[in-house]
Amino acid sequence: MNSSGSPSTASSVNRLANPNRNMSNRLDLDAITDIIPSGARVLDLGCGDGLLLAKLVAERNVVARGVEISEVNVRACIGRGLSVRQGNIEEGLADYRDNAFDYVILSQTLAFLDKPEPLVRDMLRVGKQGIISFENSGAWRERLRTLSGGGAGLELCSGEPRIRSITLKQFEQFSSCLDATIEQAIYISNHHVIHKMASLRAKTAVYVLRRTTSIPS
Amino acid sequence: MIVQTQFVTFDRDLHLQNGAMLRPVTLAYETYGELNNDRSNAILVMHAQTGDAHLAGYNSPSEEKPGWWDEAVGPGKAFDTNKYFVICANVVGGCKGSTGPSDINPATGKQYGLSFPVITISDMVDAQCWLIDYLGIKQLLTVTGGSMGGMQALQWAVSYPDRVKSAIVLASTARLSAQTIALNEVARQAIYADPNWKNGDYYDSTPPNAGLAVARMIGHITYLSDSSMHEKFGRRLQERERYGYDFNTDFAVESYLRYRGNAFTRRFDANSFLYITKAMDYFDLSYGLQSLADAFEHTHAKFLVVSYTSDWLYPSWQSKELVRSLIQNGIDVTYVEIDSNYGHDAFLLEVDRLAELARDFLGRLLP
């Protein structure tokens, strides 16, 4: 009987219980916080242990909601005083009303989805804007690693599930096929926002999207 | 902690869902901790099918076992009685001090038996609301319970949306499933089939203990899980080395069920069992509505919903259905599915994880 629910067991069975979500040195958290205005309604999909939502509550006084697949992470969120629903975000967001949130966030989770397209579409229905962050697989270090035989993505012995590699160009093509407009793009490298040669230099990208056409009522 | 069961009798009509009236209505209840000055720290805990008002502590120094949720209620526990004023009342229709079929019908001077009106979860909650009025509490900090207790918590949030700040619903459902109604019906049939039941008119003779014991055995099977039964009993034999090839008790699991069934007849009234299972069968918050979501149209309590992976009596899909309906109404809901092998009993046994959840959830309600 596993009464304490060890984190290692939970993350090995739950693909979306992404350990990246629990790291305190995440580059995109400050960038996302900068985007969100005070008092906004925010839904974080795959919210991990609630680090980002807690930061948004503390610094932006947002109305925070989260969805997270791992019991251990959900309990950590509740420990931070957050309202989080345990569930698989890939089962959809059908229960949420149109425009129920100002922002729906998918941070460092896109690469782990089986089918990103229907979920991101639904994000842009439920939220007035969507914020998506991911690690740029086109960064020069990644390219170099691939060229030198290191391969793309995680090493086999990492124990992590298969993940998608995403470049900035791929993402921008993806958003255009979703009927979404990129309102803002923030590229981060070495803890700084960069503006030039982002597709090679950016380690992390944060995009703000909005659906191009309004929801038929 | 010594606690006395208290009683209050309301000499007025309780208007029941089936159109009938019940009068007078006595409620047995216990309280723990102190009500604060602005009366904002009250928690109402509601018991499951065969529970009672004796939630925690001991009624006397010689009592062998404490109340049914003593592990979760008390100083420093999940429902910390140093902070909260905790109330638990026996349901109407019960046999532990609140008005039920084993009480005297004032119209006849005899026990009600089957002349007791059929009650519902909503009727139970209406009676509890009288108690909360009587205690001078305008709004409950939280209403909580597991199983049938969770149904009452949900009913509170629907019937009295302004009187409930939050609800903690454990191993429960917003509407009973066909499977659970079926199990309740088999349990009732066991009682009907006992010749001592006599259409409920047995208070002057031997009660239908054989039938009630079988009903309870069915219950105990549904509270466990395949894996917890395997762990607890396996194919272990009871006080014998080899098979007996007879109809005495061979297996440990048989012995357990017989023991539990018989013990139950010493503390529970068969007619109350019938009435309470029937109340559960009728429980469907979507009854007469377009959808379950419509039931929560006026609800604004914050919710904590908890289900348990191995619970097949109130499986997680029922909690998820509830959570979906709450989300559709934009209600603030937290949902956790606790990984446990204990089956439905997990809500009583997984106290450590529940304690942590309840502390965190309640912590942000009371400054």
What gap, in angstroms, lies between the N and C termini of chain B? 27 Å
Instruction: Enumerate how many helices of chain A there are, as a single number.
Output: 8
What name does the CATH topology of chain A carry? Rossmann fold
Mean pLDDT of chain A: 85
**Strand order in the sheet with the most strands of chain B:** 1-4-8-5-11-12-13-14
The percent range for strand residues of chain B is: 15-25%
Q: How many strand units of chain A?
A: 8
- As a percent range, the share of helical residues of chain A equals 25-40%
CATH architecture title of chain A: 3-Layer(aba) Sandwich
CATH structural architecture of the largest domain in chain B: 3-Layer(aba) Sandwich
Largest interface: A-B, 22 and 27 residues
Which regions of chain B have little confidence, pLDDT < 50, spanning 5+ residues? Answer: none
| Estimated structural class of chain A | alpha/beta
Number of structurally distinct domains of chain A: 1
Shape of chain A: globular
CATH superfamily label of chain A: Vaccinia Virus protein VP39
Radius of gyration of chain B: 20 Å
Can you put this structure into words, describing what you see?
By secondary structure, chain A is of the alpha/beta class. Chain A has a single domain (7-211), classed as 3-Layer(aba) Sandwich (Rossmann fold), CATH 3.40.50. Chain A is built from eight helices and eight strands. Chain A has an eight-stranded mixed β-sheet, sandwiched between helices. Chain A is globular and about 45 Å long. Chain B folds into two domains: 6-176 and 285-363, Rossmann fold; 181-277, Rna Polymerase Sigma Factor, Chain: A, CATH 1.10.1740. Chain B has eleven helices and 14 strands. Chain B has an eight-stranded mixed β-sheet, sandwiched between helices. The interface between A and B is medium-sized, with 22 and 27 residues.
